[in-house]
Amino acid sequence: QFIATNEQVKLEPAAAHAIARGADGGLRDAESMLDQLVAFCGDTIAEADVLNIFGFTSEQSIAGFCEKVLRGETAAALGLLDEQVAAGKEMMKFVSDLIAHLRDLLVYKVKPEALADEAAPEIQSSLGAEAALIETDRLLDLIEQFAAAEGRMKWAPNKKLHFEVAVIKAIQTLSQVSLTEVIENLTALRGGAPS
Question: Containing H/E element for 29?
C-alpha cells in the first residue's frame, strides 16, 4: 500500500491482501506483482484484477470450498473445484490456499482473537461457522492429508485428479467414526461409567 500510494496507484485493500497472499510474504514478489498489475490495469487495481491476472482464488471461495468439504458435500466440493479449473485458476495455489485456510481454522479453534488483525471480518465469520463442524484432531488429519496431496501434485501432470482424490478421501475420513467416539458411545450406553 505504501508503494502504491507513492506511485499514485489506487490499490483496493482486498487487492493488497490478495497480492500479499500470492507473494507469500515475499516483498520482491509482491513488488513484481504490483508492477505487472499496473502494466495490465493502469492506476486502479481491484481484488478481481489480482485474482484474474495471476489465477488466484478469492479467500471467500476458498472458505466456501472448505465448508463444502467439512459438511461432506462431495459433489458440491468437486463442482466448485471444476469451476475454478474452468476459470483458469492455478491448482497448486488453490491447494496451498486451502491448507492456509485450514491452518487459520486451527488457530481460530484454539484462540479466535488471534486472527483479529489477520483475517477480514467475512473470513472470520466463515471460520466461526466452520469451527463448529470439525474437532481439532480431525482438522489436523485434514491438514496432513492436503499437505501430502500438495506434495504429490507438484510432480503430477494431472494436478486436478490428485486434488479431486484428496477431496474425496478427506470427506471419507471425516465421515468415519473415530475410536474416541466409539468409546464415548459405549460409555454412554453403559450408563456413563467407563469400565
Answer: helix 27-41
Higher pLDDT, 180 or 174: 174
Q: How far apart are CA 105 and CA 130, in angstroms?
A: 7
Model pLDDT for residues 91-119, shown as the tens digit of each residue? 998 999 999 999 989 988 888 776 666 66
Could you give the angle at the alpha carbon of 14 between the alpha carbons of 59 and 54, nearest 5°? 65
Give 16's pLDDT tier (boundaries 50, 70, 90).
confident
Q: What is the maximal distance between C-alpha atoms in the chain?
A: 71
**Range 180-188 contact pairs with CB under 8 angstroms and sequence separation of 24 or more:** 180/137
Give the integer Cα–Cα distance in Å for 26 and 12. Answer: 19
SS3 43: coil
Q: How many CB atoms lie within 10 A of CB 112?
A: 13
Query: CB burial class (10 A; 0-12, 13-18, 19+) of residue 183?
Result: exposed
For the chain, report the end-to-end CA distance as a whole number of angstroms.
62
Helix axes 91-110, 136-155, angle to 10 degrees: 160
- pLDDT tens per residue, range 129-172: 898 888 888 899 999 999 999 999 999 999 999 999 999 999 99
